[in-house]
Amino acid sequence: MALFKTVTTPFTNQPTMPAEPLSPVLPEKPPFQGGRPTATLIQNGTIVTVEGTQKADLLVIGETIAALSKKFNIKGLPPNTKVLDATGCYVFPGGIDPHTHMEMPFMGTQSSDDFEAGTRAALIGGTTTILDFAMQDANHSLLETLAQWESKAQKAVCDYGFHMAVTHFDPATSPLEMATLVKDRGITSFKVFMAYKQALMVGDDALLAILDEATKHRATVLAHCEHGDMIDYLVQKAKSQGRLTADYHAKTRPTLVEAEATGRFTDLAYLTNANIYIVHLSCKDALDRVRQAMARGQQLNVETCIQYLLLSDALYEQETPFDAAKWVFSPPLRAYEDQVALWQGVKQGLIKTVATDHCPFCMSQKAMGQDDFSLIPNGMPGVENRFELLYSEGVEAGKITLEEFVALTSTNAAKIFGMHPKKGTLTVGADADMVVFNPNVKHQIFAATHHMNCDYSAFEGWPVTGKVQTVLRRGEWVVHEGQCVVARGSGNFLARTVTNA
Ligand SMILES: [Zn+2]
Fold it and tell me: Based on the domain organization, do 85 and 100 belong to the same domain?
């Protein structure tokens, strides 16, 4: 019996990527049972953390890492210790994706992964923790919004925390709510949108108030940096000229729009002395604004997403024009030169995290914008692919080191968002979240075999070197050789603390 729903929609227009043969089919093995043994010994693996790489054995007892040693004497271990031979494999800290949108209402529909399906796909892809966005709407307070997201996330199977998206700031109530969220509810980061006017966007007055309030509590403010008015101007102009096809999504969001907002956000944060984090930075022009801010001594954290590192705006030119809708998200894909600049930013330590902005919509949902690009729901699936793709295109391709890979996929997010060292590393006392990773397995990404609830892949046919073999989430074996066994709702909410990272 298949463990997962598979989607078999054929694709006629795929990005041109080199194809490689699939790995050979292996003989059938007994089904994976999952579960949390009293203890797990991971033997003969290569343990990778940001501090370095070493051949060692790792002992997990219960939910935490109990010891690391060159070699354990099996006789001294607890009875019924489960042993995993990791010869030839890396052992990485479980991935942390700091930017996801599970079952998010948006543009008249809802992202197609709910918290269970999306976090299951995350685990299969090596991500054991997500930070999702609780999105305030016009009719709810911040605390009501948190209650809504807590309820939705009850079914999550990986661990999770929330950033609180503040979409309207009420001077009478919002400051008190923000203080409560930070001090009592473990929500230590707030998100603002500088785009999506009439929906999510806040003006500069509200933005300043939010930055000021967050600074009082040493919380972090995240921003979606695009200039909403510039976009609306360009969108209306395109539409008035009858330019309605999906490729106009990108054409109406040039890099200038992102660079302006990035610069303005860093300026407002400089004025208010706020801790800030720029989400999904996609282009050289915006990165240059970050460099300018850093040149005056400003501290800030920058995220990019795996799609901006690997894909370019050439994908908007499709034989069937509406296929471009698969890559309609904001900011849009950029030129090849921007990819080069982003890799440089990663290498220079300007970009601290690689996330996904996972926000899938099926093609039937994308079709809402069949006749008008501005109605295409913005977003793409990615939470399952980030870890393996960054290994393959980063480490295997020689662009980043193993330690940088761990920093970008896990440790930096844990530090920035107040989860370290419980999350994001492999040290005694940390949560036993880890990925046993076989760097030699070659495979390909297909919508037909991925586990996200989305009928297309943004990386269809992409060849990948290296595969997640086994995943432990707090000591529980949740993924092994492509099978995932995990109880609905077994993910934990992470109450986070403020940090100076
Ligand atoms: Zn997002």
Answer: no
The domain total for the chain is: 2
CATH number at residue 474: 2.30.40.10
pLDDT digits over 360-413, tens only? 999 999 999 999 999 999 999 999 999 999 999 999 999 999 999 999 999 999
| 428 CA from centroid of ligand 1 (Å) | 33
**Residue numbers of the chain with a pLDDT score lower than 70:** 1-29, 500-501
Tell how far the Cα of 443 is from the centroid of ligand 1, in angstroms. Answer: 28
Same domain? For 133 and 251 the reply is yes
CB within 5 A of ion ligand 1: which residues? 357
Q: Do residues 423 and 431 make contact, with C-beta atoms less than 8 angstroms apart?
A: yes
Centre of ligand 1 to C-alpha 199, Å, is: 14
Q: Using CA atoms in the order 21, 335, 456, 235, what is the torsion angle rounded to 10 degrees?
A: -170
Say if residues 433 and 94 touch (Cβ distance below 8 Å). Answer: yes
**30 C-alpha vs ligand 1 centroid, how far in Å?**
39
* Ligand 1 centroid from CA 66, angstroms: 36
Task: From 436, 473, 441, select the one nearest 90 (Cα to Cα).
Answer: 436
Q: Which domain holds residue 232?
A: 94-416
355 Cα–ligand 1 center, Å: 10
133 vs 116: CA distance, rounded Å: 16
- Distance of CA 180 from the midpoint of ligand 1 (Å): 24
Residue 232 and residue 289 in one domain: yes
- Residues 194, 265: contact at Cβ < 8 Å? yes
Over the stretch 212-245, which tens digit does the pLDDT of each residue have? 999 999 999 999 999 999 999 999 999 999 999 9
Sequential DSSP letters for 106-146: ETTEE-S--HHHHHHHHHHTTEEEEEEEEE--TT--HHHHH
Ligand 1 centroid to Cα of residue 119, in Å, is 16
